Amino acid sequence: DIYHIHWPDPAVPVEESAKTMRGFYEEGLIRSVGVSNYSVAEMRRFMDVCPLHFLQPPYSMFNRSIEKELLPFCVKNGVSVLAYSPLHGGMLTGKFFREGYSPPRDLRRKGMKDLREPYYSVEKDAFVKTEKLA
C-alpha cells in the first residue's frame, strides 16, 4: 500500500522519480507515495510532479535536525512523517558504551561517524546523562 524511495538517486532527476511514482499511484498499484532522506528542496520538486504522502527521515534524541526545516515543511504541506533510526543506529540502547566495547568492522557501521572520535565521546557523555534521567 505504501511505496517510497529510500535515497534520492543522484543520477536520476527528482522529477523523473516522481513521475514514475505518480504512474504507480494513478494506476492504483500503490495508495501512498513517500520519500526518505530528501531535503525540503527535493520534496518541493517531487511534489510539483506527484502527491507526496510521507517522509521517512532519521530522527532520535541524538539526531533532531529534522526539527529545523523538514518537520515544519511537512506540517505545512500535510506530509506525514515516519521516522527511522529512533534508537540512533542502536546507540541509545547503550550497547556501544559498555566497558570493553569496540565498534564493529562491518560495512553497516563503518560509515557511522558517531562511532568515531570526537563524536563517540560526545554521544557517550550525552547517553550517560540521559540514562540518569530515565
Quick description:
The chain is of the alpha/beta class and 134 residues long. The protein has 5 helices and 4 strands. It has a 4-stranded parallel sheet, with helices on one face.
Explain what this protein looks like in three dimensions:
The protein has 134 residues and is α/β, with parallel strands linked by helices. Helix content is 36%, strand content 10%. It has 2 domains: 2-81, no CATH class; 88-133, no CATH class. It has helices at 14-26, 40-47, 70-77, 107-110, 119-133; strands at residues 2-5, 32-36, 54-56, 80-81. The chain has a 4-stranded parallel beta sheet with strand order 1-2-3-4, covered by helices on one side. It is elongated and about 55 Å long. The N and C termini lie far apart (37 Å).
Q: Layout of SSEs?
A:
Blueprint: E1 2-5, H1 14-26, E2 32-36, H2 40-47, E3 54-56, H3 70-77, E4 80-81, H4 107-110, H5 119-133
Parallel strand pairs: 1-2, 2-3, 3-4
Helix pairs in contact: 1-2
Gyration radius, in Å: 18 Å
Q: How many helices does DSSP assign?
A: 5
Tell me the overall shape. elongated
Approximate helicity band: 25-40%
In N-to-C order, the SSE pattern is EHEHEHEHH
| Mean pLDDT across every amino acid position | 89
Strand content: 5-15%
Reported for the largest beta sheet, the result is: 4 strands, parallel
Biggest sheet strand line-up: 1-2-3-4
Outline the low-pLDDT stretches: none
Measured between the Cα atoms of the first and last residue, the distance is 37 Å
Q: What is the total tally of β strands? A: 4
* SS-based class: alpha/beta
Q: What is the total domain count?
A: 2
